[in-house]
Automatic annotation (TrEMBL):
The keyword Transmembrane applies. One of its GO terms (biological process) is carbohydrate metabolic process. The lineage of its organism: Eukaryota, Viridiplantae, Streptophyta, Embryophyta, Tracheophyta. It comes from Helianthus annuus (Common sunflower). This is glucan endo-1,3-beta-D-glucosidase. PANTHER family: GLUCAN ENDO-1,3-BETA-GLUCOSIDASE BG1-RELATED-RELATED. Belongs to the glycosyl hydrolase 17 family. GO terms for cellular component: plasma membrane. Its EC number is 3.2.1.39.
Length: 385
C-alpha cells in the first residue's frame, strides 16, 4: 500500500472513531435516576425502555447491576463519575485508570457505554474547590480511556446547569459568567480538542416557576403563543427550549467555540409540586414532554443553528421518592414507581396505570410485583420477594 493510500486508510479509521465517540441514536434519550427505594429492577427498566423504543439513557453513577442489565440491549448508555470522586481522580492518574477498569472496560462491548459524564453541574455550583479540580479529573479520565484504546468509543463530557450563564435572554445575549470563565475556557478548549460536545441541563419549567409574571406558560410548553423576537439575529422563537439551546450556542461563540455542538443532558417538567410550584401539574408535564418528544423526532436544528439536529435526554425515567428538595424534585418521572405511565405521551408502561405495585401478605411482608411488557397485549408477571 502506497504512503498516500496508507494515510487515507488511517484517516478513515480515525474519522470512524470520532463518529463512534459521539454516538447518540436518533435524538431522544432519558435520564435513568435511581434515588428511590420503590422503582423497578434494572432488568425491568431495560424491558420498558425497549418497549418505548428509548435507545439512549444516562445514569448518574456506574452501578454494575445496571450495566449488566443493559448488556445486549442495544441501548446506548452514558455513565456518571460522581462529584465526590473528582478531587481524588484529579490528582491521581492511577485512580482514574482503576475507575475506568472497574466501571467501564469490563462491560464493553456487550453494554454499549458511549460516554462518561465527569461530575454534574460543577461550574456555577457552590463548591469552588470542585471548579478547580474538574478539568484535571476530566483529563485523567480521558487519558485512562486513551491508554486502554477506548477514547474513540467512550466520550468524556461534563454537564452544566444554567448557573454558568450570566445572561440567556434574548438568546443572542447568551454569555458565561465572568467568574466561571477562567475554568470554563480551558475546559472548552480540551473538549474541543477531543471533539466532545457541550452538555447543558435546561429546564423551561424552572425558568417559568421562577418568574411566572414575565414568562408565557404557553411559550414554555411549546403551545401556541406570540413567542419572542431576537433583534440582533432577526430570529423568532416560539418555545423556550430552543431559545435556551441557542443561548448556549451564543455563549460558546463568545468564548471562541462556535463550532461546538450543544446536547441537552437534562430537561423535563414536574407533574406535582409544592404550593409555590403551581405549574407542576400532570397536564403541564404531559404537554411539555409530549411536545418535546414530537419536536425531537423531527430531527431539526434551532433557529440559530438550523443544521445542528437537537438531541436531548429527558429527565427522568421515574418519580424518585428519596430525592431531597422541593416536592417537584420527586415528580419528574415519565413513569411511576410501579412501572405504569405517569401520563400518556405514547409510551406503554410495565403495568396498567391503575394497577397496584405492592401487595401485603401476613408473614411475608411486601411482595413486589414486576411486570415485563412482551407486547401491547401480553404481560408476563414475575414475583420477586
Amino acid at each position: 500500500m502506497g504512503s498516500a493510500n496508507r494515510f487515507f486508510f488511517w484517516s478513515l479509521i480515525i474519522s470512524a472513531n470520532l463518529v463512534t465517540s459521539s454516538a447518540f441514536i436518533g435524538t431522544y434519550g432519558v435520564n435513568y435516576g435511581r434515588i428511590a427505594d420503590n422503582i423497578p429492577h434494572p432488568e425491568s427498566v431495560v424491558t420498558l425502555m425497549k418497549a418505548a423504543k428509548i435507545m439512549n439513557t444516562r445514569i448518574f453513577d456506574a452501578d454494575h447491576e445496571v450495566l449488566k442489565a443493559f448488556k445486549g440491549s442495544g441501548i446506548e448508555i452514558m455513565v456518571g463519575l460522581g462529584n465526590e470522586f473528582l478531587r481524588e481522580i484529579s490528582v491521581n492518574e492511577d485512580r482514574a485508570m482503576n475507575w475506568v477498569k472497574e466501571n467501564v472496560e469490563p462491560f464493553l462491548p456487550g453494554t454499549r457505554i458511549v460516554g462518561i459524564a465527569v461530575g454534574n453541574e460543577i461550574l456555577g455550583g457552590g463548591d469552588q474547590e470542585l471548579w478547580e479540580v474538574l478539568l484535571p479529573a476530566v483529563k485523567n479520565v480521558y487519558n485512562a480511556l486513551d491508554r486502554l484504546q477506548l477514547a474513540g468509543k467512550v466520550q468524556v463530557s461534563s454537564p452544566h446547569s444554567a448557573a454558568v450563564f450570566a445572561t440567556s435572554y434574548p438568546p443572542s445575549a447568551g454569555a458565561f459568567k465572568e467568574s466561571v470563565m477562567p475554568y470554563m475556557k480551558p475546559l472548552l478548549e480540551f473538549f474541543s480538542q477531543i471533539k466532545s460536545p457541550f452538555y447543558i441541563n435546561t429546564y423551561p419549567f424552572l425558568a417559568y416557576i421562577s418568574d411566572p409574571d414575565h414568562i408565557d406558560l404557553n411559550y414554555a410548553l411549546f403551545k401556541k403563543n406570540p413567542g419572542i423576537y431576537d433583534q440582533k439575529t432577526n430570529l423568532h422563537y416560539d418555545n423556550m427550549f430552543e431559545a435556551q439551546i441557542d443561548a448556549s450556542y451564543a455563549a460558546l461563540e463568545k468564548a471562541g467555540y462556535e463550532n461546538m455542538e450543544v446536547i441537552v443532558s437534562e430537561t423535563g417538567w414536574a407533574s406535582y409540586g409544592d404550593p409555590n410550584e403551581a405549574a407542576a401539574t400532570v397536564s403541564n408535564a404531559r404537554t411539555y414532554n409530549y411536545n418535546l418528544r414530537k419536536r425531537l423526532l423531527k430531527k431539526k436544528g434551532t433557529p440559530y443553528r438550523p443544521k445542528r439536529v437537537v438531541k436531548a435526554y429527558v429527565f427522568a425515567m421515574f418519580n424518585e421518592n428519596l430525592k431531597p428538595g422541593p416536592t417537584s424534585e420527586r415528580n419528574f418521572g415519565l413513569f411511576k414507581a410501579d412501572g405504569s405511565i405517569s401520563y400518556s405521551i405514547g409510551f406503554t408502561g410495565l403495568v396498567p396505570s391503575s394497577a397496584k405495585s405492592f401487595i401485603t401478605m401476613k408473614g411475608f411482608g411486601s411482595i413486589r410485583l414486576m411486570f415485563y411488557t412482551i407486547s401491547a397485549a401480553a404481560l408476563v408477571l414475575i414475583i420477586s420477594l
